[in-house]
Specification:
- This protein is mostly helical.
- It contains eight helices and no strands.
- The protein is globular and about 50 Å long.
- It starts with a helix and ends with a helix.
- The mean pLDDT is 87.
Length: 250
């Protein structure tokens, strides 16, 4: 199978985990503490993956300077865009409770939450395509990390959307669209950067890592900490170790 098809398919499958989480949240009343625990585990998995699969790979590929510049650029870009989206009602898009505003409370919140979900998902998906260029094939630890973390992200966010009174067509339309865009982002990461210099690949890999870390801190950890505060650190540690084990096993 051509590598570009595998790259796009990997992003699509990983993005579809968001839909899986949203289906669970829509049809099953999952306790807030369970959602928070799963979110903490997913955050730990992603932190481990970005450290050992993205940042380490970026340093080996293009050196420390390119990695630092990319990492800071990714974090700064994400934070600026997140601040803008927060002003339009997307601040709590990953929360499972009643923190999300309804459409009547904030008329622009529906579009802002959808754009915010896309902002959260694109960096994760892009690095799947990049892994073909930097590692010679799909990074299974990174793919597993994105898939595992997407389930609680979709679950928690969809529970919050449902609590805010958003209809099923909106919820599943958002996540279905994000799944498709995840596939396209992974494909773009492969096609657009094929033949790029090691420094460029390192910069983009680190840029994605910085954006992912900012996303974890801004949208995943608050949900995990509020409803599973006593155990979130331990659960996140278990997620970190699970991804680390997978990294060394492959």
């Amino acid at each position: 199978m051509p590598a570009w098809i595998t790259a796009g398919g990997a992003g699509l499958i990983a993005g579809s985990a968001l839909m899986l989480g949203s289906l669970v949240a829509w049809f099953v009343q999952v306790p807030a503490r369970v959602v928070a625990a799963i979110m903490a585990f997913g955050a730990g998995v992603l932190i481990s993956a970005l450290a050992f699969e993205l940042v380490e790979e970026a340093i080996q590929t293009g050196g420390l300077i390119a990695t630092i510049l990319g990492f800071l650029s990714g974090a700064l870009t994400y934070v600026v865009m997140n601040v803008l989206l927060a002003r339009h009602g997307a601040r709590h898009r990953k929360r499972s409770g009643d923190q999300q505003p309804s459409q009547s409370e904030h008329s622009a919140s529906g579009a802002a939450i959808a754009v915010g979900a896309l902002l959260d998902g694109v960096p994760e998906s892009m690095v799947l395509g990049l892994s073909f260029l930097t590692g010679g094939g799909l990074s299974l630890p990174m793919f597993a990390a994105v898939f595992i973390s997407n389930v609680p992200e979709g679950l928690s966010s969809s529970a919050g959307m449902k609590s805010a009174g958003r209809p099923a067509r909106y919820v599943f339309g958002v996540w279905g669209g994000i799944a498709v865009m995840s596939g396209l982002a992974s494909l773009a990461g492969y096609l657009l950067l094929a033949g790029a210099s090691p420094g460029t690949l390192a910069f983009v890999n680190a840029l994605a890592a910085g954006a992912i870390l900012a996303m974890i801190t801004d949208t995943m950890i608050p949900e995990a900490f509020e409803n599973a505060a006593l155990y979130s650190g331990l659960i996140a540690t278990l997620g970190f170790l699970a991804a680390l084990t997978l990294h060394h096993a492959t």
